[in-house]
Every structure is written in structure tokens, then in C-alpha cells.
Amino acid sequence: MKGNRFATILFSSLVCTTLIGCSQNEEENTASEKLSVVTSFYPMYEFAQQVAGDRADVSLMVSAGEDAHHYEPSAQDVAAVNEAEVFVYSSEEMEHWVSSLLNTVENDDLVIARTADGVDLVDTSGSGHAHNHDQHGDEEKQEAGGTINIQGVADHYHTGNMIELTAELDEEVDYDHWHWYTRESADDEWVTVPNQGGPEFNYEASGESFEVRAVLFDENHNEYAESDPVEIVIDDHGHGQEEEHEHDEEHGQHHEHGSDSAIEIVGLADHYHTGDVVTLVAQLEEEVDYDHWHWYTRMSEEDEWEAVSGQGTDHFEYKTTGESFEVRAVLFDDDHHTYAESEPVSVIIDDHESHDPHIWLDPVLAQEQVNVIRDTLIEADPDGQAIYEENAEAFNKELQALHEDFQAALEDAENRVFVVQHQAFGYLAQRYQLEQVAIGGLSTEVEPSPSRIAEIGKLVEEHNVPVIYYQQGANSAIAETVATETGTETAVLYDLEVLSEELQAEDLGYVDAMRQNLEALQVSIK
């Protein structure tokens, strides 16, 4: 009898174990049956999660602290997309690396959601950069009332000489917005000379003859008057460069003398737009008495380094002209030998091919992106159609309510201008008839020069703005300095290219961040 009872208990235990094992297997199978979705960057991740709900396993490639524009997919990323059933991204204008990724992936069954499909990417630069009129000096000029004459041109200069010129207008006007342009010959395009914003031109000769001209802009940033080109002749009489400037002739190819110290360049943004001011600072890890700095640029590794005129301190301010380049800093000792130098850093100029890719910042266009994701998930998983449609409809209702709140809060405002650190809010500005003005290249790591602060101050005064907006909570001490000097305050506008640490800490998502954007905008838009 006892044996039978033991056998019964053992049998029951085996059945139980088998059933539990079956249950666990069923749960594992259910988990493995979830649709595998890989998304590029944060908005795509949240939109896909909202539509998929519990029916898909949604993963994110570009995490916080990384740049969605210039991200480099890892081998693990490629492997994940190879195993995925759906890949979601916005557009090639935003994620430049997607084409390369998809060319690498070998997954014939992958269903791709390009959420910008159906949305016309527009050129919103008209509501973007203030002072972005530097197109090589080739804009159509308005009728001018005077002629500019350039004074002070010598018959020739030597490499290393300072070229000091003055532009004089033959009539008195209130305009004071000057630009200077150079070109190597009449066959070349005019290029803007950075850090030359007044009628005086101070430029260090660097070895080649060139032409220069001056242009005066009116208060609407249209050309008012321009000079004829004048030729600057560089003639070293066959002797090369003066001894005290030998380091410039070598285009930055120096050998260090007596120091293993490294220079770190800080203040670099992930990318800039044409016309932005790149503001960097060179930091040496030890204190020295030397202060003879030079900065060098080159277009690529195949090119020689060229000294940048007018950059003789540890600070570098340079207005971009449309091409990406590399920059490095060199500190010389009292004998003009290289004491320390930095590694090259890349200054990326990305004008998004004149199209603003930040379409997710418009709550109406965001709904179109949600619809693309919905249709793609249905294509990959027809059995989940009802779930995807229901989830998309619910989330789009949230987005529509968000849109209506923006519309109601901003429609009657008299002041419709807002000033931002970085041009990212063109679609939002266009949707609600606002004007975005960008202080391109303004760093939150490097304090700008007095002249740069004065330029920003004029912009603030011109538009009568109370706030300068910074992205992703970058409200640093430098931002506060700029605010104090210009009589403004600072506030955060989230561009949501990544989910910032501030938002993650408070467990806030896209809709929450956009509502915070609305609240912040109302300080300017009122």
C-alpha cells in the first residue's frame, strides 16, 4: 500500500514537473514569437513602441550621448538588423549612415519603415539662421547709394606680414555689418574671411597672393555696397619665410621640443551649419608661461595643414563656409619651437542638404510617421493588424491633442520670434507661424569672445527676445555667462534626437518633453 502511494506521488510529481516545463516552454515560445523591431534613434523608438505595444520586441541603436546624424553602426548593430524583422528610421537626411548600414545587411526578409515617406522635407532655413547671408558674397545686391574704396594696400607683402586694410564708403550710413572675402584668382569663388566683421581688415599673409574685397550689408542683411577686388601680392624675393615664422611655412608639420604635454580641444559640437561660428579652446594639462598659439586647418588627411590667420590665442573662433575640415592647435615656446600640440579634431559641416530633417518636432507630421510605422508592422505581422491599428489610433489622438495645445497657446501671440542655440525647430516654427533664429555654433563649453557676445547682444536687441534656448538641458555656466552679458535668460528646448538624462531620470517621454517645450516657448512667444 505504501509502495502504491509512493508510486502515485512520484507519478504526480513527474506530471507536475512536465506541466511546469510545458508552461515555461510555452512562455519562451510566446516571447520568441514577438516581432523583432530595430529602430534608429529615440523618436523612432518611442513611436514604434507606442504602435507595437507588447506584440513586438523594440530595440534602439543610437543611445543617449551619441549623435544620431553621424552615428557609426557597430558589428552588433549590423548583426541585430540581420536578425530583425523590421527596421525603422526617419530619413537619410537625418541618419546619414542608414544607406551604408542597409547595404551591409544581408536580410532579404527585412521590412523597412522610412517614416519620412509621405512627408515633404522642406527647406526651413528661412526661419533658421540669423546672419546666414555668407554665400561667398554672390547674392544679388540691392541698389547701393555709394562705393567702397579699400585703403592701405602695399605694393607687396612677405609671408608672415600683417595685411592691414580699411574699407571706406563715400557716404555716411548707419549700417556697420561688414564682410570681407578672398579668392586666389578670378577663376575661383569668393570665400568669407572669418572674424572680420568691421571696416578694418587684419590678416596674416600666408605665402600665396590673392584678391580681397569688402561688402557692407544693410539692416535686412542685403548687400548695400561692395568694393572692387584688390590684389594682395605676396613676394618673399625667393628667400622663403622669415626665420621667426618658419613654423607657419611648414603648415603645422612641427617636431616637439622638450614637452610630452598634450593639448585638448574642447567645445566641439557634433556638427555645424554653414555660417555657424565654431568656438573652441585649447587646454594644456600643465601651466606654462608660453602664450604663442597657432591654429591650423586642412580639408582632409591628404591636404597640408594651413595656418589660420588672426588666431593667436588659445581660443579659436571661425565662421564656417560650407565644407567640413580638421583643426588642431599648436603652442610654441619663446624660441618658436613647438612646445605642445593637439590631436586633429573634425569640424563637421552638415546643412542636411538644405532640408530640415527634424520632422518629429511637428506633432502633425509625427502622426504621419506613426502611420508609416503602423503600416510597416502590419506588413511584417498581418495577424497583429487590429492591435497595431488600435495602438496607432490611440497614440495619434495624444499627438493631435498636443498639436491643438500648441495651436491654442501660440496662435494669438504678438512676438513670434524665438532664439535657439542650434537650428532644429524649423518644422515646429513653420507649423505655428513662428520665426526661429539660430545663434549657430554657440558652445556651452567655451565662453565666446567679447566680439561674439556683442554680436549675440545685437541679435537679442534686434528681435527683443528674453530667452536663448539650449538643447538637451545644456544650461551650463557658459550659457549663463552669455545670458548675463546679453541681458537674457536661458531655457531648454528638447530636440529629442536622444532621450536626455534629465527626461530619463523623471521617466518622461516624447509627449512630456514636447509639453515642456511648449511651456518654455511661451516665455518668448507671447
How would the blueprint of this fold be written?
Layout: H1 2-32, E1 35-39, H2 42-52, E2 56-60, H3 75-83, E3 86-89, H4 98-104, E4 111-114, E5 148-151, E6 162-169, E7 177-183, E8 191-192, E9 200-204, E10 210-217, E11 223-226, E12 230-232, H5 246-249, E13 262-266, E14 277-284, E15 292-298, E16 306-307, E17 315-319, E18 325-332, E19 338-342, E20 345-347, H6 363-380, H7 385-410, E21 417-420, H8 426-431, E22 435-438, H9 450-463, E23 467-471, H10 477-486, E24 489-493, H11 501-505, H12 510-521
Parallel strand pairs: 1-2, 1-3, 3-4, 13-19, 21-22, 21-23, 23-24
Antiparallel strand pairs: 5-6, 6-9, 7-8, 7-10, 10-11, 10-12, 13-14, 14-17, 15-16, 15-18, 18-19, 18-20
Helix pairs in contact: 2-6, 2-7, 6-7, 7-12
Task: Explain the overall architecture.
There is one protein chain. This protein has 526 residues and is α/β, with parallel strands linked by helices. The protein has 12 helices and 24 strands. The strands form 5 sheets. Strands 13, 14, 15, 16, 17, 18, 19 and 20 form an 8-stranded mixed sheet that branches. Strands 7, 8, 10, 11 and 12 form a 5-stranded antiparallel sheet that branches. A 4-stranded parallel sheet has the order 2-1-3-4, sandwiched between helices. Strand 7 (177-183) and strand 8 (191-192) form a beta hairpin. The longest helix has 31 residues, at 2-32.
